[in-house]
Fold:
Amino acid sequence: MKILRSKADHAEPVQLPAVSESVTVGLRGAGWIPARVLESGPDAVVFAITVRTRTLTAEQLESLQVEFVTARGKVRLRGTVASQDPASPEVLTLSAPRSVEVLQEREYVRIKSARPVLVHAAREGMQVQSFTVDVSGGGLLLAGPDTLAIGDVLTFQLTITPGVTPVTGTGRVVRVDGMGRRAVEFESISELDRRRLVRFIFECQREERRRGLEGENRG
Structure:
């Protein structure tokens, strides 16, 4: 969950994404879409949008932001954006990159837990039943579906206890790991549901500790 927004310190070198790193691009009227860095240097970052999209307008290019994850949290970059080649409008150059925002993340305990979750992605327009690999108060790691791409916004219904009202909210895919699992960061979730989720995680940890103690006693 985002809890702090601060302007980047211009006295420090601007943090830039690495070559081949996955980033998300914020476009006015189109939300956040995935891209990949082709070149990265202090004067310019070249990246390619990896989903099909219409040719960007001058207004979209002017307001475009590039977001990527660092050890400090998420960094958003702005600069002068232009297409390198009219024949390849998906390849863009961000010149004179500067940090405009650093989004530091609240730390949440994360546990491994397989729980059913119903996912509805706006881009796909359909609901898919999946399950979690791990869970925290700030997001989920999903086993699928493999149709979800970085930047996709989705709604979810997470069943933490059978027969009890699911935890619901919206999230955004922020990472796809080498096993194809989708890391989803919560964008909107009620405080009640977040407390229910944190309480569930606490109970799982307590049960795990209890089993560990019982195993030690038997030993």
Helices lie at 58-63, 191-218. The radius of gyration is 20 Å. The chain has a mean pLDDT of 84.
